[in-house]
Design brief:
Elements (H helix, E strand, L loop, with lengths): L2 E5 L6 E5 L6 E6 L6 E6 L12 H21 L1 H6 L3 H7 L1 H14 L8 H13 L5
Antiparallel strand pairs: 1-2, 3-4
């Protein structure tokens, strides 16, 4: 059974991780020493020879973008309902959106850096700016 050594980004503790049951998924791991949590991609690596990005990685990046934008919409729902235009929303939330975009880009694989901003913008248009002029 394939195992991987994972290292906690917070405290540096090493642990063994059984990959087989989680092939093709993203797994949340919690460090037993410091309780820090981080995501590990299992079997979603890019084929280095072809340079193609797996559809699963794109779907995960899309889900992450939608999750982040939904969080912003949730925390600012009162303002968004009262806003008349898209420009008004974008201007008021520009700091939050900038932070969210930076966080999003730091969480997606390097192979998606060219496509990532487009996926985030799609989520922004669809979720946050829906129905606004």
């Amino acid at each position: 059974m394939p195992t991987r050594i994972v290292v906690c980004p917070s405290c540096g503790r090493k642990a063994r991780f059984q990959e087989e049951p989680y092939q093709g998924h993203r797994v949340l791991i919690r460090c037993r020493q410091c309780t820090y949590e981080w995501w590990v991609e299992v079997g979603l690596e890019v084929d280095v020879t072809s340079g193609a990005v797996p559809d699963a990685a794109i779907q995960q990046a899309r889900r992450l973008a939608r999750f982040i934008v939904n969080e912003i919409r949730y925390y600012h729902q009162d303002f968004i309902q009262k806003a008349q235009t898209r420009q008004e929303i974008l201007e008021e939330l520009k700091d939050d959106l900038s932070l969210a975009r930076t966080h999003y880009l730091s969480r997606i694989p390097p192979e998606l850096q060219s496509e990532g901003p487009t996926l985030f913008q799609e989520a922004l248009q669809e979720i946050l700016l829906e129905g606004k002029k």
